[in-house]
Design a protein that fits this description.
65 residues, 52% helix, 2 helices, mainly alpha
Length: 65
Amino acid sequence: MEEVTKRNSRGLGKKQALFLTSIRIPVEVKEFFDAKYPYTKQAMMREILTDYVRNQTEQPLKDQL
């Protein structure tokens, strides 16, 4: 009988797993990313959305000071 080895899970210092989702976007948004980032469009969409969310969460803190 074969031994089953335990796979290493994500530990300290590892990137957090990403959440899989499906979104509908306008055609012009798709065409923009196809033209500007043909090989990395998904990564760029993720980066832009992440930056936007981070800026939105930081904004109220700046307003309170």
